Amino acid sequence: MPFATEVISRSGGRDHNEDSCAFAESGGAGCWVVADGLGGHRGGEVASKSAVQAALDSFNSDPQINQQALKRHMQAAQNAVVNAQSQEPGLSTMRTTIVLLIADSTRALWAHIGDSRLYLFQNGSIAFQSSDHSVVQMMVDAGDITPAQIRHHEDRNRVLRCLGNPESEFRPTILSEPRAISPGSAFLLCTDGFWEGVLESEMIVDLAKAEGPAEWLTFMEDRLLETLHEGDDNYSGIAVMVR
Amino acid sequence: MMNFNAGNAQHIGARQQQQDSFGFSDPSDAAFVSHGGFLGIVADGMGGLSQGQEASSIAVRSFLATYMTKTPLESVANALVRSLQEANRAVLQVSQASASGDAGTTLVAAVVVDRELYWISAGDSRIYWLHGHELTQLTADHIFGKKLDRDLAQGRISRSDAQNHPERASLTSYLGKPDLTLIDRNTKAVVLRDKDSVLLCSDGFYRGLSDAEIANGFEGDAQHACDKLVHAVLAKDRKQQDNITVIALTSRKDGLTFPNLASPVAIVLVLLLCCVLALSAAGYWFVRHPSAPKAPAPAVQQPAPPPPVTVSKPNIVGEQDAPTQVSPAVHSPPVAGPGAKLAPPAPSASSGSRNTARTSRSDKMHPRRATGNAGTPGTSSTDRQDKRGQGQSGPSPPSTAPRGDTPGRGDSPSPGTPTPQPPNADRSKIDSRLQTVKAVSAECMRQTVTPNGGLLLHAIRNRSYQPVGWPRS
After folding, report:
1. How far, CA to CA in Å, does B379 sit from each of B167, B244, B337, B384?
2. CATH code for residues A3-242
3. What are the two backbone dihedrals, phi and then psi, of residue B43, each rounded to the nearest 5 degrees?
4. What is the DSSP letter of A169?
5. Which B-chain residues 94-153 have CB contacts (< 8 A) with chain A?
6. Most confident residue range from B71-80, B272-281, B411-420, B446-455
7. How far out from the chain centre does Cα B135 lie?
8. Rounded to 5°, angle at Cα A130 from A129 and A132
9. What are residue A225's phi and psi, to 5 degrees?
10. Using the beta-carbon criterion (under 8 Å), do A201 and B129 form an inter-chain contact?
11. What backbone phi and psi angles, to 5 degrees, belong to B395?
12. Closest B-chain CA to A198
């Protein structure tokens, strides 16, 4: 495969991990998914797991790199969460963010909903960073705060869009045209618990140090752990390097 | 095309010896600079008596000398590894030749070639990248606490065990270690932008300042910024302040405010100014050091003029008598002569802080000893409390530090010994150092460049330094 992948997902300062991540590779193409569940009583865990699994199933049945396929994967994830909500009354309020990447060795496409992020690194800098569906991102867009203030803002946990809302509110951001990638390109898909603990410049530095995706994640996790306190969020990330 | 502006500042803190060393490569060697760039190094030595000084000094010299053998065909990243290994061998020799066999040093080195940054590190000295007011730590500290944090994250130990472990701050990598495998370095370049700075520093520097204080305090000319930051550390008036060293490289697309060096008139002006200033610097040198040796001497054999550590001139011990310079520029504390090891304990007025210096250093060496009772509950050290801001001991989970890696030390604090507090006299000493720090750092600058003909020439060259670029393999 043209990709080297490593996954990390931990409960952080909490008892339960409501994040889910998984990936699949099929015929030279791959699909990588990270989701951050919301809604206690194990609801968050169920929501993120079912969304990730549904997206991967959808990819496996149609491993193409185009926007239509990507839209179907996102819709499959949404349907899975909504179905799971209706099956168990206690889980009716569960929700999840999701970020999804599909790629072959030369092209990549991605989509997200919520505040889980995708970063693309090329030539030692960030070539793309997804824009969160969150209150603080709106404040940044409005010029009220700077991007640097997001990580410490009191409203940083307020997500504006996610999977599991009624269909009318299902509004993912989906990249319209595939982006060209090449050996040396690297992706990081991660939940807010991860990116809050690692600055973008630190991601760049650690990528410059890392021999592979496992080392990259370890370096970033070490930084994150320096400031992790009891009660802090779960953190999860998938690192993908194009070989 | 980038120009560079270099700065450095150093202070002994509240210690009796300056065990930090630093050095730069020669920025005026255009042929080398085109492929090898501009190199800065900081090393923080540890070990009893003079060995910490000797270790950091020889590490910087050996590293620099090895790096200068780099050819255009060798990659910068590879040359850095080779230089580090050579420096490690040199420190090991010092260590083996010493009575207690425990000399060691941290080392951080950074190279800027064209706009690309490469670095290498062993130990807990740090390199920062400053872009605007965004400060990013490039190096990971090689301390046992990292492993404890990872064990905690994976549920292998409890939070209190991880946070209260007495050996959190112990080094897991350093020069002077027979199996130096834990190295922090980049293999892919980090690309600098205009006005970015790279700071290399010892822990005595960064423990005194928050990231925000470093980022916001670094302003203007690199030399000015280094002076200002060392002032800021000293202004904290921390008890038992460790040696402080910081060096900086700042990139300037627009070069210096000084005249365009391509203009002949400007060159004449610059040279005239240099002559005047070099003469006055030389005059100052001879007034202060009438007996200073004139020729640069190689490596360690050259003993510093007098005296082994005494308390007669506390302000700049470790800095004032260090004329032993090799070219390219290395600044290091004087290497104590043979008499130093035999010197009797210092007079009681200074024994408190002297012991303290030893205590903290031997703490660093802990995990490399055959452990066991080294960190038993009840052992206390002020430095430790400084780092964690809380009480000493917790239950001691099995340490994974290699056993018997380094022989035990004779001068480690015995468990239960209360940490000596600095006598009141130390406070006034720190105050007086505060006032003299300007002179001290200016002197460092001069010493750094004496072999190349004077402080200002060096500074001007730094600023006009324009790497030509070279296809690197």
Report:
1. 11, 26, 34, 10
2. 3.60.40.10
3. -135, 145
4. G
5. 129, 131, 134, 136-138, 140, 146, 149-150, 152-153
6. B71-80
7. 19
8. 130
9. -70, -25
10. yes
11. -60, 150
12. B136
The tokens for B101 are 């066999």
Residue B415 has φ and ψ, to the nearest 5°, of -55, 140
Cβ distance B195 to B221 under 8 Å? no
- The strand order across the sheet containing A117-122 reads A3-10, A235-242, A186-190, A117-122, A125-129
- The full set of domains in chain B, from first to last, is 3-341+426-464 (3.60.40.10)
Structure tokens at B255: 């070069």
CA distance A94 to A96: 7
Q: Which residue of A has its CA nearest to B154?
A: A10
Average pLDDT over residues B145-151: 95
Give me the average pLDDT of each 10-residue run along chain A (243 residues): 95 95 95 93 93 98 96 97 93 96 97 98 96 96 94 92 90 96 98 97 98 98 95 97 96
Rounded to a whole number of angstroms, the distance between the first and last alpha carbons of chain B is 20
Are A89 and A159 in contact by the 8 Å Cβ rule? The answer is: no
Q: Where are the domains of chain A?
A: 3-242
A221 contacts on B by Cβ (under 8 Å): 150, 153
- The CB density around residue A155, as the number of other CB atoms within 10 Å, is 12
User: B186–A226: do the CB atoms touch at under 8 Å?
Assistant: no
Copy the structure tokens of residue A75. Answer: 């819709």
